[in-house]
Amino acid sequence: MAKTADVSVIVAAYQANATIARTLASIAGQTLKPKEVVIVDDGSTDATFEAANAASANMNGIELRVFRSEGNLGAGAARNRAIEEATGTYLAFLDADDEWMAEKLERSMAHMESGDYVLVGHDYVTEDGPPHHCEQRFLESGDAFVNLYRKGYIASSSVVVRRGAVIAAGGFDPGLRNAQDFDLWLALTRGPDSHFLVFGDALLRYHPGPGGIMSHTQRRLECCLTIAQRYIPDLKRRPGSALMSLWFRVIALHLEAVQAYGVLGNILGILWAAGKCPFSLLIMTALSLFPQTPKRGRFIDGEGLKSLD
After folding, report:
1. Domains in the chain and their CATH numbers?
2. Residue-wise pLDDT tens digits, 141-152
């Protein structure tokens, strides 16, 4: 009989009727079982809620709890609701169209319990493609937080984290309709004593969907620029040039947008993203001279979330 870990798996689902059963099957097949899976259907208009509930008989003893939000509030709000309902000491995140390899949770928890880590992540594969080497970016020379800020290399569905740390960080920011996961990983790792790990096993199969990087390109760029500004004060407390890291991130975001529009064949989008870059650099540089640390997330200092600590 497989062992059980004190882990709540958090799944935000939207229009996932066709994929949710596959995702839940990958959880049920873990060599180390989580204690529960908490799903929030974020206002789907298909049969996501019904399909999720129908999988309860196939979860190999793992408790499955499914909730439904009124309206499509976004992944951040849905995950916050799931975190409120969760009872595990640890949280593991899995998108409703992705899959874990069978040893994902066992290997992640072995690393989490072997060191004083705030979060643990790992490599992944895209469907049947080659591995994405997140660990290589993590191991690059320099400050791990600064490298994360610059390159955003943590795959959300690979993350295991202490629930108490997520509460203390304020949860996901529902005001960010894109990249709210990247924002939370930065919030969790910003402190000088906040250690994290990205290891090299490809234990996640990522399936690009309609909510991926190629969609909502303009919205994603604007959200990521907000995040880039948000952590300027943290960059200034780190070794190296905060301004160089800021410029690196801003240019990378615009190149990402240009590439996304290029895949879509959107010439006007390419011109807009490329033309906006120098203005973004100018504005962000000016903002860096008078940085502020705005409140982030729905739950500030854990307010509104029940704590198990």
Report:
1. 3-212+298-302 (3.90.550.10), 217-288 (no CATH)
2. 889 999 999 999
